[in-house]
Amino acid sequence: MNTVSFTPAVATLTYERVVEQIEKAITSGSIVPGDHLPSERELMVQFSVSRPTIREALRVLQSMGLIESKPGGRGGPKVLEPSPATLARSFTTMARLEALSMDDLVPFRLVLDSAACRLAAALHTPEQLQRMESGIVRMEAAVGTDAEAFARADVEFHEAVWEASGNALVSLCGQAVSGAIFDLISQQLKDSPDSTRTEADSAALDRGIFEAIAARDAVEAGRLARQAIYDRYSDLLPTGGVLGLDALLG
């Protein structure tokens, strides 16, 4: 077990001070993924706080995706590898609670997808291209038959594009918003008076993007990605949001 030690927490907002120290130890590399924190009792002694305070701090750290606690496990909580899944949950929760609106998500996705498609056109590997095409084929097969499968295949196609961008931050942001995007697509299909037509149009747009990426035409891939987002979602935005999309469409 790692031998890192902690100093007593101050009385004000005690559990937050505990969280702050443990988070700093993890992000600085003093504790690395795979290490275990000390037991609850040891943490109580090091921080000079009560068991409920330690448990609240550990609960927060777990919700942040920094540690994993398993009942009956040996040692203290395990430090986890960084993962986009935690950020994805935050984006999805914020979208569902309307802390992130369509005005936030749609322009962000337009910028993200355009950049990712341009990079993917230049940098993709044959294996990544195959994954993209697999997503497109599944989308086309689900048109008019399974809206949830269609939405998931759509996200899978874009996940393959984000990965093919070769940019870790683009991929991270893409994965982080994928849950919110899935909800967005599902709701759009649910609200559509002709969901089959909406699905067919969406699949055709993504097929065009795929073909531009396959041809390594970065300019066309980026243009089609921007146009696809505009065509899909501009009708769902208020006037101000549409004006913002117009500026990005350029």
Automatic annotation (TrEMBL):
Domain HTH gntR-type: 12-82
Record Pfam families: FCD, GntR
CDD domains with a match to the protein in the record: WHTH_GntR
SMART domains attached to this UniProt entry: FCD, HTH_GNTR
Source domain of life: Bacteria
Keyword tRNA processing: no
GO molecular function (one): DNA binding
SUPFAM superfamilies assigned to the protein according to its UniProt record, in alphabetical order: GntR ligand-binding domain-like, Winged helix' DNA-binding domain
Keywords: DNA-binding, Transcription, Transcription regulation
Gene3D superfamilies noted in UniProt: GntR ligand-binding domain-like, Winged helix-like DNA-binding domain superfamily/Winged helix DNA-binding domain
InterPro entries xrefs: GntR_C (IPR011711), TF_FadR/GntR_C (IPR008920), Tscrpt_reg_HTH_GntR (IPR000524), WH-like_DNA-bd_sf (IPR036388), WH_DNA-bd_sf (IPR036390)
PANTHER family listed in its UniProt record: TRANSCRIPTIONAL REGULATOR, GNTR FAMILY (PTHR43537), UXU OPERON TRANSCRIPTIONAL REGULATOR (PTHR43537:SF5)
Protein name: GntR family transcriptional regulator
